[in-house]
Each structure stands twice: as C-alpha cells, then as structure tokens.
Write a structure and sequence with these properties.
The chain is an alpha+beta fold. It is built from 38 helices and 48 strands.
Length: about 1300
C-alpha cells in the first residue's frame, strides 16, 4: 500500500517549565489544554531537572492552533535589550510558561512515532479487542508491618514481626503493581508489590487495614534524594498541586535488601514474614475498596477482621534462631537430605520455624537401627558409618511442598498443626515404601544425571530448591558418593529472573549483599557451603557452585583448597593489579570453570587403550592466524568404540565436542589414522591436568540443525541487497504451515513430531491413533491447549523475533580440512538427508556462510562450496562444515570472531538469496586483547569479585538492542559507523566472560535514542487461564495522563519501521491468526472424547477376548496415578523460576515455560530444555509401570528419543507378585482412573492444580497394549501349536493369561 507523505509537523519550545515536572507529569499538565483544542497527535519532552521543554505536533496546523491560543505574546510598549518583552498565555502549576515555535525542525523520528500512534488509533475496535480503562486507587497509609499468620487456640491471628510508621504515606493500586511509599529517617521508602505476587488480600475494618499474603518479598527502594512533594506528584499524576518553583531534581532509586528498622533486623525475617499489613486512613475506605473490587481483576479480595497478637507473641526472629539451633544439633543424626527439606520448607515460607522444629524433635525421637532402609538415607552419609533410620524420609518431607496450603481465613487451623503434618508425613512415607518412585530415580541415574541441591540468592532472601536432576560435570564424577556436598547457587531477582537493568535504579546494595554471600558462604542443614567455582555458561546465567567440606573415600578432608588444585595446574594464570584490569582474572575463572561444564557422557579412554597424540596447530604463513583453533582429530576405531558407549542415534556422529583433562574443543574423524588414536592440538589445551582418564562429551554432530533466521542476520542480508521478496516467501511459507496445523490432523501429527512434544510417550502417535479411530482430539480442552500453546509460541517467535526457517539452509558444527584439499575461498558442506527433503548438490555453488550473533556487516560472507572426489577422507565426515586451512585468514574468525572449539555455523544455498547479495563487506578485524599480569596467581576472592562485577556490568543485551535500533534508523543500516562501533562493543561484551575486559559503555553515550522501531514493541500479553485456556489481556486505553507507576521499566516510543524487519513484523497479525486459525471453537457437548475412547477399547476387548477384567487392577492404577501426580507436581515446582509458585501442568507436558510476552528469557529457554528431559523421564517411568515393563538402559542426553514406536524402549513384560493383573488390564484401569479424576485437592493449596495428563498417557498405553494383544491373538489363531485356556484367553509360555 502506498504510504502517505510524512507530515511536516511542528515543534514548540516551552520556557520556564516547573523544574520538578517529569515528562509524564508535564504531559498530564498539558493534556487538558490540548483536549480543549481537540488535538490528539502530540508529544512532549523535558530534560529532568531543567526548566524548558519541547512540545511536538504531528500536524503543523495543530501546532499553529496551540500557539494561537497559548503562544507567548509581546507586551505592548515593553522592550528589553532591544527586544519586546513577552507575556505567557499558559500556566502550569501556577507558573507562566512561554511557548513559541522552536528554531529547530520537529524530530522526524518522533513524527513517525506520532504517525504510528495515530494509525493505531484508527484501527477498528475488533482488531484490538475490548479496551480496558484503568484508574488507580490511592489510599493514605498510617502504618506498615510484615509478619505471619498463626492459629493460637484454632483462631487465625496475625503477628507483626516488624513495624514501621507510615503516617502520611500512600498505598497506590496502579495498573499492575501496588506501590507503598512513606517517609523514613533515611529518606523516602518505596515498596513495589506486583499483583502476580499477591495470593490474597484480606480486608479488615478493625482497624481499616489490608492484609496481603505474598508469594515473595516486595521490591524495596530508597528515594533518598527525592522530596516528599515530588514523590506525591509522581504518585498522584495529573493532580494540580501548588509547590512553587523549587521542586528538586529526583535522584535515582537505590534498591535495598530490607527496610531499615531501629530495633529489629528486617532482613532476618524478610523471607519468611510474608504477610504484610497496611493500616489505612478510614476516610473513604469503603468506597475505595468498592472501586478496587470493581476495577482490579488481578486481586482476590475477601473480608475478615483478623485479630492482631499483642501479648505472648511468637516472633519470627526468635523462632528462626531456635529452628537453626535445632538443625545444628541434629545435623549428625538426622540425614542431611531430610534436614534440607525441612530447612527449605521454613526458608521458602511454607512452615513456621516452631512447627518445623517440633517435627524435627519428634523425628529425632523415632530414630531406629531396624527401620527399613531408604536410598536417600545413605546417599550423603560419611563412608564407613551405618545410617540411622527414621519414621519418614526426605522424599516424604519434600511432598509437603505440594500439600501445604496458604494460611488464611478459609484454611483450617489443623492443616498447620504438628500432629496433622506428622500424619501426612507418615502417609507420604507409606506411599514411597511401595517402591514405585524408585524406578524414576534409577532412570535418572541411567541418563548420567545426578541429583543436585539448588539455591536461589535474591536481593532479600535465600531459598532452597530440589534436589533436581543435573548433568554431571567433572567434579561431580570425581566424588560420586558425595554429590550432596555440592550445590548450585543462582543469583537472581525475587521472581527467579535476572536482575532487571534500569538506569534509574542503583543495585549497589544488592551486589554488596551478593559479594558478602560469595565470600562468606552460608549454612545448609548443618553444613557450611562456600564458593567453589563457575563455568563460562553458568557465569552468563549468574550461577556458581558452592561446596561444603567433607571426608572422601580415602579419608582425606576435601575443600576448595584441595579440590581445585586436583583439576589441573592453574599456576601462572595471573591478572593485572590495577583496579581497571582486575576483571581480567576471569582468564583463571574460565579455565577452572571448564571442570564445571556439563558433560552428560564420559568415556574411559584408559579402558579403550587410547593413544593420545599432540599435534601442532595449523597457522597462517605469518603466524598471526590459527586455522585449527580448537579442533583435533580422532581415528575411526576409537570413534566406533566411543559410539558403542553412546545412545543409538548418536552413533552416526563423526564430530564430537569434548572436554579432556585441560583441553576443550572438537574432534573430527580422520580415516587415515590407525588404531585407537586421539590427536589434540595446543589451541585446545587451556591448562595442564593429570585427569586424563575420561573423555567427556558435551555434544555430538549427529544430525543437521535446521537453519532459522534472526533479526540480526536479516538486517545484514537486507544491507547486502537480498530481495525483500525472499524474506516474505520464507515467512509466508512458515506462516501458512502454522495456520494449517490445527485444521488437519495429519498436519498436527507432523508438527508435534517435529516439535518433539511429549516425545517419550509418542504424543503425536496418540493423536494419529485417535484420528484413525474416528475420534477428534479437539473435543478435549487439555489436548487442544497442548497443541495451541506450541503453535502460538511458534507464531510469536516468527513475529516478534523474526525466527524464520530457511528451506535451503542448515546449521552445522565447524571443523578444519585436515588434508589441505580446500582452496582458501572454499568450504565443504556435508549433512544427512532429513525426512522427505531432497539432498542438494552443492558442488561448485556459492553459498552464504555466517554465525550468530552477527552484527558487523562483514559477519556474513559468501564462499564456494565444493565436494571432494570419491574416496577422499573428507567424505567420511557428516553434519559439519569443513573450512579451509589456506589463505591469509581463517574464515571462522571472520564470522563474528568464531573458532572451531564447538561453534556452529549457518549456511544458505538458496540461489535467490545468494545471487541477490550484490554487496559484500569486509569482515571485522578487532585487535586482540592480551591479559596483563598482576604478579600473582588467581585466588577464590578474585573469582567472586569478578562474578559480581560481571553481573553488574554485563551489557550484552543492551548493546544488541541499540544496534538493531540504529541499524533501522540509519539509511546505511549496519554499514553505518555507529553500528560498526556497536558491533565492536558487542564483540568485546561477548568475550568479557573469557577475557575479563569490560565494555567501555561511555562510548555509547552519543548513541542514545528514545525511539524504537515497531518490531521491537512488546507482544500483547497472554496468560494461561484455568489450566487449559490461553487468554490475551485486554489492552489499556492510551492516555496522555498515563500513570508513571504503571511501567516498571523505561518508557519506549515506537515508530513504523520502513525496513524489511518492520514489514515482516506487520505482515503477521497474531491475534487474528489465533482467533481464526489456532484457537478453534469446538462443540464439546455430548459424550467426551475419553468416554468414546473407553467404549471403543471395551468393545474391542469384548469382540477379541470375550472381555477383560480391568476392575481388579483399580487399586494398582490408583497407586500409579498418585505417584504420577506427585511427580508432575514436584516437577512443576522444581522447574519454576519461582521458589514457591509452580508452573502449570500444561508447561510440564509441553516442556515449555510459558512467558506471557511470548518470548522466553534465556533462563526460561535453558529451563525448558531440562524440563522436557525431566518430563520424558517421568513418562518413560510411568509407562513402564502401566505396561509392566522394565525400562531399558536410557538413550541418554543425545538420543533423539523414541522412534515411531517407543515399544523398543522397554524389556519384556514383568509381573508384580503382589498383583495378578496384566498390562492390558492395568492400562485400561489407569485410563478409567485418569478419566475419573484424582483426589480432589484443597483450592487454598499453593499449587492446587488437578493433574489431567495421566489419562493421556494411560490411554496411549491402553491402545498400544490392545494392539499388541490383538496381534498376538491373530498370530496365535494361525498357529497350530498355540495352547488356549477356557474362555479363549491367550496364554504365555509361563502359563499366565495375557488378559
């Protein structure tokens, strides 16, 4: 569509603006004047603390109308310095403001912003949905306290653990957050409590108060340099207040870890005292509560006059001290895992410390030497000691996380009584003793996983998780009987995400807290855990490893001082002494951290008789470039021996990413090597290590990775003149595929298989089987939600991240041509044919080669692909791109500074894209940074200092976003000098975690912009509602007097981008696609899907076998369902970023953490990968129970999962001597139990979701068992030698009936 010419606009200069007005409050003050003139398309700007501003109009006529009404006018006969004196015609806060046309043109980008907003306003109402108009509700505060609920004499009572006077303060219910602000002796205190963290609000009239039950502590800020008047202006928005002309400039907020108090340390109870009481002014209390109830859809409000304890109170600080002493006293008798779970229940705010203390005392009295032994009783015991047995185990205690409700007006007092909890623990233990859960732990062990305790350190508290399955690293393998002495520590915000960068917020206090914990450690269940180290990847995710001292199997005391030196020789790894260069110590940290890298598979090279050879690196003629940087070779004989110890589907791999001793990198197959040979190069060796026995495998090149474009690649390709039509063709191909997924079941099946949704249970096969039976999965809301969630995720990635699949492209590991066949401008590309795709002939064809992240225009290069002649050893390689060893500079280093130690590279051979690249740019060549010597070896405190400094100064994301903005704004795109500068800064930031050289952010000062292209606008929020429905939030009506407190982060102004990224973004209407193509309205009246399936199965049993007595397996089925529900509930808590709030069953089943913005954070992506593996383990385990099969040795982390029929994942059918049911009977019984529903749980439980997926797994098991039984019957009917028993039942060789 032809775009109209951009309006010229008009800028108005405003002088003598009240100094304390912010941009938002200035907008609020101006709005009434502009509404009078019926002007809608305008914006204003004002430097903070200054007395001038700019008012910009989209249409020049509107600006002239404003000046005609409010522009300054000359005073007749009054002259000063030869110029007429002026009279203001605009008053803001009773101050005259002088307005005149600016001598500068209106900002063209701002005009684009205003034009975009005007276009949005003209859109039909049905396009944006129902508009919600939000108005904040503001109360005056009297007092604030934090405390806890208890039930003395069975009556709900609130005890205030810490109290503050908040007289004259404000409690404001903004759009998404409750903000409480009050004066304190150190300044103005501000609490931010997002509504998502509020479980319940109890309204009390005696006195007029609100009791808030929180999931997590509030965010606390100090506004030390901001006056109360200015804070009130911020809080009340457009209320006109006469404050004169001396409003001070607001300072930045400082994030605090507690609210200071004269007598009590708030920090000691902050994590457990999660009931906040706000005493409010009685003025207009009832009417404001009514407004809050009517206008706030996020809060659960209830009325109850809560008694407040005053005499004989049990304060949280005293209770915590008593509980800590009890833990210490029992640390030598009660198993560590059990103590850990009790401490987690207290730390995370589930149980009161006195309750947990009383339970521990009672448990101590039950110790016995004759009780049944449990796995977790011995896992962390010291070698040579005989464990003492107790009434229940750590697993029984851990189940309390899914069984403990929130205290409140509608929770029975007995739920928190010691006797009730003890009874619950005994019941839990009886279920565990049935042994069903143990097979799950065995499966995790087969997957080469170990259970690791995980701890979150937030700005206010320390919370405990797990233990959770974690891939082993070198240290965990070294001490397999003492893994409980190691813990993974995550430093994050209260919600489990990274601390949000905000230029207006200082995090100095928080980082000092983190540094103190890193240096001093903290106690866990009677052990003192202290810093040990971190890997490169864990540094980026802000996680470290801690350990507690222990006596190993050889009776040696183990600590940081003894563990680290045994990993290798780190002497000589030094750092500069001057403060600027102190960051360089990461050179040491990165190499020590190599031992912490996850390596799911380890192969014993000594057992294989491996001959390790050291070969020289291949360098350029002048020696300045290393062509073989990070890659070695391996013989076929050794590779095949390693294959025998790997999963079946990884045995095709010819390239391995490895860790060995002090070396890391890739090994590629060299068919010219004879014997069991591994060749290692100097560029692979990072330090010397005696630990040469095990070859640890991080990843394998067992298949090609589909190539997906991203915004950075698309922008550079646009600058290289790739035609826009190519991008649209690729996007439309994917969009059409996604739109048809729910329309046809065959499309659904293919999509689910490619996405690997519930792969272990064969979910795509289940949907296909239902279709073959004439049953429509859409009749079940849960099954629909599974598919719709994944499709919506893909649509949102396509729109908001430009993740466009490329049909003629692939992503591969990079290795070097060991034989010198390739010319300096040539590459060899080899990969396995995928499904129905035809294998391309790439010989003598130009291809596009790149690597992510690509920011510099030269990060994408064009090279010629060649194929070696038949019989050449390069043809033995697969699923990799082979780079030449000839020329002046290696190609990998030209592509975003890549190397060959495990980097993956993108290749495109589509002729339209390749031929369209009429421009090609020289690669970047940034100078290498040499570490400076501090004159001593790196110590632990150096590493902890660097870790905190890295958290505080990591600006990688900020640089990348600024780059994409400027590349869109500047006509030259990524070729512009500003973009090249940002690309260089990004390269420095990427290497920061390895080199320790931080980015000089002052270089970005001149590159600031307040505007963003529309393709960076946030996605419309969507939430999972009632477990199965995804619902988009109603948009909020835009307003000129918008509330400053409604946005936690910086405000961005978006303009319509005319570049390819903007056009691709606007071509997708996700809400329309959701409504028209994904979320289909289905008539679900009549029999349910499950009723129809149950009828089919019973009919088949009647016709083929004369009926099946599945009722006798009901008790066993109920037991299996109960342990499955527990496993899913536990996973929902363990894989949640939040310490208390679980993710949904839908997220567990799909293996995807749902983000309402549609775009996962890095941590959520990593967690989703682990969650998918965990759900596959759970389904494999429960299928084994239902189908009465032993689970075979696991495929391991590189296995692609079950094939078209997961039947081969199991050994022969087994029989439980305690039951007489067959697998078919049990699977049908499980389906019946699944459809009937589980035990109804209290709605006041923290995570009260009823599990629905059990029936899905049971149904698929039943269908497969039925198919197997029918096939066996058909075979038996045709064989004369088969014996039958009365009634026509098929018998096995052992004489037992199959059904």
């Amino acid at each position: 569509m032809q775009r109209q010419q951009q309006p010229s606009g008009l800028a108005v200069f405003m002088a003598n603006v009240p100094q304390g007005l912010t941009i938002q409050s200035l907008r609020a003050q101006l709005n009434p004047f502009l509404e009078q003139l019926r002007i809608k398309d305008w914006d204003c700007d004002k430097p903070r603390g200054k007395t001038f501003g700019i008012l910009t109009f989209l249409h020049r006529k509107d600006g002239q109308a404003f000046l005609n009404k409010h522009g300054e006018q000359p005073l007749p006969g009054s002259v000063f310095s030869g110029k007429p004196r002026m009279r203001a015609q605009l008053l803001l806060l009773h101050k005259p403001v002088y307005c005149r046309e600016s001598d500068r043109e209106a900002d063209p980008t701002l005009l684009k912003v205003l034009e975009t907003a005007a276009d949005e306003r003209k859109r039909p109402v049905e396009d944006v949905g129902d508009i919600h108009d939000h108005r904040p509700v503001v109360f005056e505060t009297r007092e604030l306290s934090c405390g806890h609920y208890d039930y003395p004499d069975g009556i709900l009572t609130y005890t205030a653990d810490v109290q503050w006077s908040a007289l004259g303060g404000v409690a404001k219910f903004a759009k998404h957050t409750l903000i409480v602000s009050f004066k304190h002796s150190i300044g103005q205190i501000r609490l931010e409590i997002p509504y998502r963290t509020i479980h319940q609000v109890v309204i009390s009239n005696r006195p007029t108060s609100l009791f808030l039950t929180l999931w997590e502590p509030p965010r606390i800020f100090l506004l030390a340099h901001q006056s109360a008047e200015n804070e009130l202006l911020s809080m009340f928005g457009n209320v006109s207040i006469n404050m004169g002309s001396s409003l001070p400039r607001p300072g930045e907020r400082e994030r605090l870890s507690k609210i200071p108090h004269g007598n009590t340390d708030h920090g000691k109870v902050l994590g457990q005292s999660l009931i906040y009481c706000i005493t409010l002014s009685p003025a207009d209390f009832a009417s404001k509560i009514d407004r809050l109830r009517n206008e706030n859809e996020y809060l659960e409000l209830s009325h109850h006059n809560v008694p407040i304890a005053s005499i004989g109170c049990s304060y949280m600080a005293d209770a915590l001290a008593s509980f800590t002493a009890t833990i210490a006293a029992y640390s030598q008798t009660i198993p560590f895992d059990t103590l850990y779970q009790f401490q987690a229940l207290v730390q995370n705010g589930y149980l009161l410390p006195y309750t947990a203390r009383n339970l521990l005392r009672r448990l101590q009295r039950t110790k016995s030497d004759s009780a049944p032994q449990r796995n977790e009783d011995t896992g962390n015991a010291e070698p040579g000691t005989s464990p003492t047995r107790f009434a229940f185990s750590a697993l029984a205690v851990k189940k309390l996380f899914t069984q403990t409700p929130f205290p409140g007006p509608y929770t029975e007092a007995k739920m928190f009584g010691s006797d009730e909890i003890w009874s619950l623990l005994e019941t839990n233990e009886k279920e565990i003793q049935q042994g069903l859960i143990q097979e799950l732990f065995s499966e995790r062990a087969r997957q080469n996983l170990t259970m690791v305790h995980k701890v979150q350190v937030t700005p206010t508290r320390i919370v405990f998780h797990g233990p959770e399955p974690e891939a082993k690293n070198r240290i965990l393998r070294k001490f397999p009987r003492h893994t409980g002495y190691f813990a993974r520590i995550q430093f994050c915000d209260e919600d489990g995400q990274d601390l949000y960068f905000n230029p207006k917020v200082s995090l100095k206090t928080i980082y000092l807290r983190f540094k103190k914990i890193l240096l001093e450690g903290f106690p866990i269940a009677g052990r003192l855990y202290k810093f040990l180290g971190f890997s490169h990847s864990s540094l980026r995710s802000h996680a470290v490893w801690f350990m507690a001292g222990f006596i190993d199997d050889s009776k040696q005391l183990r600590s940081y001082a003894t563990v680290i030196p045994e990993l290798g020789d780190f002497k000589g790894i030094r750092s500069p002494a001057r403060w600027y260069y102190v960051y360089i110590i990461i050179i040491g940290a990165a190499r020590i951290g190599q031992a912490f890298s996850e390596t799911p598979i380890a192969v014993n090279l000594v057992e294989l008789g491996t001959d390790v050879k050291y070969i020289p690196d291949v360098n350029s003629k002048d020696g300045s470039r290393v062509f073989s940087d990070g890659v070695g070779t391996i013989s076929r004989e050794l590779l095949e021996a390693i294959h025998d110890r790997m999963p079946q589907k990884s045995r095709r791999a010819t390239c391995l990413q490895i860790r060995w001793a002090g070396a890391k990198g890739m090994l590629s197959l060299d068919d010219t090597l004879e014997g069991n040979v591994m060749c290692v190069r100097g560029s692979m060796i990072k330090f010397q290590s005696p630990d040469i026995q095990n070859l640890e495998i991080c990843d394998v090149a067992n298949k090609p990775i589909p190539l997906v474009l991203n915004r950075q690649m698309i922008k550079i390709l646009e600058d290289m003149k790739v035609p826009n039509s190519w991008f649209f063709k690729a996007q439309n191909r994917e969009l059409n595929r996604l739109r048809k997924i729910t329309a046809y079941t065959n499309n659904t099946v293919i999509f689910l298989r490619r996405q690997k949704v519930a792969e272990q249970m064969g979910f795509h096969q289940f949907i296909r089987r239902l279709h073959q039976l004439g049953l429509d999965y859409k009749k079940d809301a849960f099954l629909c939600s599974i598919i719709e969630t994944i499709v919506l995720r893909e649509v949102r990635l396509l729109k908001h991240k430009s993740r466009i699949p490329v049909e003629h492209g692939v992503t591969l590991f990079g290795v070097m041509d060991e034989f010198g066949y390739l010319g300096d401008e040539e590459v060899f590309i080899t990969f396995d044919k995928q499904e129905e795709d035809s294998y391309p002939n790439l010989h003598n064809r130009l291809v596009i080669v790149t690597r992510s992240p690509a920011l510099h225009p030269g990060d994408i290069q064009i090279r010629r692909a060649v194929v070696p002649p038949r019989g050449h050893p390069l043809l033995s390689l697969s699923n990799c791109i082979v780079f030449s060893q000839k020329g002046d500079r290696d190609l990998p280093s030209q592509l975003s500074g890549g190397d060959l130690d495990g980097d993956i590279y993108n290749v495109i051979w589509d002729p339209i894209a390749v031929d369209g690249c009429t421009r090609e740019f020289a690669p970047a060549d940034y100078p290498r940074v040499s570490p400076l010597d501090i004159g001593r070896d790196v110590r632990a405190e150096d590493m902890t200092d660097f870790f905190v400094d890295f958290m505080a100064t990591d600006q990688l994301g900020l640089i990348a976003i600024r780059h994409i903005i400027l590349a869109d704004l500047r006509d030259a795109g990524t070729v512009h000098d500003e973009c090249k500068l940002l690309a260089e800064m990004h390269s420095t930031a990427v290497d920061y975690s390895k080199t320790g050289i931080p980015v000089n952010m002052s270089r970005m000062a001149s590159l600031r912009t307040k505007y963003r292209p529309d393709f960076l606008a946030p996605a419309p929020p969507a939430n999972i509602v009632d477990k199965t429905e995804i619902r988009f939030e109603a948009p909020v009506a835009p307003s000129a007097d918008a509330d400053e407190d409604d946005d936690a982060g910086p405000r961005h102004k978006f303009y319509r981008s005319d570049k390819i990224l903007g056009e691709l973004y606007r071509a997708i209407d996700e809400k329309k696609i959701w409504k028209d193509d994904i979320h289909l309205e289905v008539n679900r009246f009549g029999p349910s899907l499950w009723d129809e399936l149950f009828v089919h199965i019973n009919r088949q049993c009647d016709e083929n076998f004369g009926g099946v007595n599945w009722q006798r397996a009901l008790r066993e089925a109920h037991n299996i369902r109960r342990v499955y529900d527990d496993a899913i509930g536990t996973a929902a808590i363990e894989y949640s970023d939040h310490s208390s709030k679980s993710i949904t069953e839908l997220e567990v089943f799909t293996g995807t953490i749902f983000n309402k913005s549609g775009i996962q954070t890095r941590r959520q992506r990593d967690t989703s990968t682990r969650l998918k593996d965990a759900f596959d383990q759970i389904t494999k385990w429960v299928e084994g129970l239902i189908r009465k099969h032993h689970i075979k040795s696991s495929g391991g982390p590189f296995d692609e999962g079950a094939g078209d029929d997961p039947q081969d994942e199991y050994d022969e059918e087994i029989t439980n001597p305690d039951t007489d049911s067959t697998a078919l009977e049990l699977s049908i019984a499980c389906l019946h139990v699944g459809v009937a529903g589980g035990v109804r749980r209290s709605s006041n439980l923290r995570n009260a979701e009823e599990i629905e997926s059990f029936k899905v797994i049971a149904a698929h098991c039943a269908l497969r068992e039925l198919e197997t039984a029918i096939k066996q019957k058909e075979i038996a009917d045709g064989a004369a030698s088969v014996g039958f028993v009365g009634g026509g039942f098929l018998v096995r060789s052992d004489g037992r009936r199959l059904m």
